[in-house]
Amino acid sequence: MVLRPRSAGSRPPCAVGRLVVSSRAMDFGVKDTAAYRIIRQITDHTWGSDVDYSDEDVVALCRGFSRRGGSWESLMSGDMGSIVHLEAVIDDMVGTKKLEEAHSGGR
After folding, report:
1. Is residue 83 over pLDDT 90?
2. Distance between CA atoms of residues 68 and 82, nearest Å
3. I want to staple 65 with a disulfide (CB 3.0 to 4.6 A). Which of 26, 35, 60, 70 is the partner?
4. Are 36 and 43 within 8 A, CB to CB?
5. Alpha-carbon distance 94 to 90, whole Å?
6. pLDDT (average), residues 58-85
7. Cβ 20 vs Cβ 6: under 8 Å
8. Distance between CA 69 and CA 66 in Å, rounded?
9. What is the predicted pLDDT for the residue at 43?
10. Which strands sit side by side in the sheet containing 3-5, from one edge to the other?
11. Average pLDDT over residues 62-75
12. How many CA atoms lie within 13 A of 85 on its CB side?
């Protein structure tokens, strides 16, 4: 991560105290995140490893998880309610993806 002092009058993309996280340092893939690794583990365990997610899918899963009342902090602490919320969001998305694949393959 590249940190540099904040210049007066500038509006940084992401400020941490008096330091600014360079936008170049923010150029990492969604698949490098802890959220993706957790989603991947649950998916592999429940649906198998043949399910693939795009970056947009991962972001949609994270948003759906938050909308259902899930919290990453609680999930990391082992809260079963958050785990159930995440599993439900994953099941919904994977089920939809499987239906779309079956529908498009049947044409």
Report:
1. yes
2. 9
3. 70
4. no
5. 6
6. 93
7. yes
8. 5
9. 94
10. 3-5, 19-21, 15-16
11. 92
12. 19
Q: What is the mean pLDDT of residues 10-25?
A: 41
Three-state secondary structure of the chain: CCEEECCCCCCCCCEECCEEECHHHHCCCHHHCHHHHHHHHHHHHHCCCCCCCCHHHHHHHHHHHHHCCCCHHHHHCCCHHHHHHHHHHHHHHHHHHHHHHHHHHCC
For residues 26 and 21, what is the distance between their CA atoms, to the nearest angstrom?
8
**Torsion region of 17: left, alpha or beta (phi above 0 gives left; psi -120 to 50 gives alpha):** left
Instruction: Give yes or no for a contact between 39 and 90, defined as CB atoms under 8 angstroms apart.
Output: yes
The structure tokens 């690794």 sit at 37
Check: CB of residue 75 under 8 Å from CB of residue 34: no
Residue 4: which region, alpha, beta or left (left: phi > 0; alpha: psi -120 to 50)?
beta
Distance, C-alpha 57 to centroid of its chain: 8
Q: What is the pLDDT of residue 90?
A: 96
